[in-house]
Structures are given as C-alpha cells and as structure tokens.
Amino acid sequence: MKPQYGQASDETKRKLYSSILVVGGGLLFHGAQDFLQHRILNKMPPSFRRVVENVEVITRPKDMDPQLIPWKGGAVLACLDTTQEMWIHQHEWQRFGVRMLRERAAFVW
C-alpha cells in the first residue's frame, strides 16, 4: 500500500495532466493541436494514462482570437485586488532589489 502522501501527489498529478492550458497564437499552424496532444500523452507516465479521463488541446477558442487571450487575461489579472498588493514601486526596488520579488510573488520560489 502506498503512503498517504503518495496518493495525494498522484491525485494532484492526475488533475494537472487533465488541466493543461496553452494560450497565445503560437499554435496556429496546421497539425499543432494533434502534435501537442500526442506529445503530452507520450510523456505521461503509463499509470496516469489509465486514470486521466481526457487530454484535450484547444488552439482556437470560440469567442476570441487566440493571440488576444493572454492580453485579456493580463488585463483581468491587473484589475484584481490581490494583484494590486503585488506591485513593486520604484523606491522599493531601489532599496531591496530582487529580494522584493520573493516578498511579493504570488508563489513560493
């Protein structure tokens, strides 16, 4: 029997393999969708191929030009209250430098 942490990790990996999203206009050439889907499935460990329900690559969303989606996402992100707390002002950068990135980043690195 696997340890408890391994099961949680496997569940997280399963969700991640089921939730890959590629945005932007870089995949607007013929065959890119099938190629990326094939590469994802081939790189996925065999044990996950059985439990991941669907790997879907969408290169052209219904309502918008794919080249504009990153810009729209960035515009929405910039309006969120939590994003306002992440801004680094010039005087902070001059005083603390790159250390401010660790302080304000939305993720641990």
TrEMBL record:
One cellular component term from this protein's GO annotations in UniProt: nucleus
Broad class of where this protein is predominantly found: nucleus
Keyword terms: ATP-binding, DNA damage, DNA recombination, DNA repair, Nucleotide-binding, Nucleus, Transcription, Transcription regulation
Pfam family name, one: Actin
Annotated localization: Nucleus
GO biological process, one term: DNA recombination
DNA damage found in the keyword field: yes
Domain of life (superkingdom): Eukaryota
Protein's UniProt keywords contain 4Fe-4S: no
GO molecular function: ATP binding
Entry similarity comment: Belongs to the actin family. ARP8 subfamily.
Function of the protein: Plays an important role in the functional organization of mitotic chromosomes. Exhibits low basal ATPase activity, and unable to polymerize.
Protein name: Actin-related protein 8
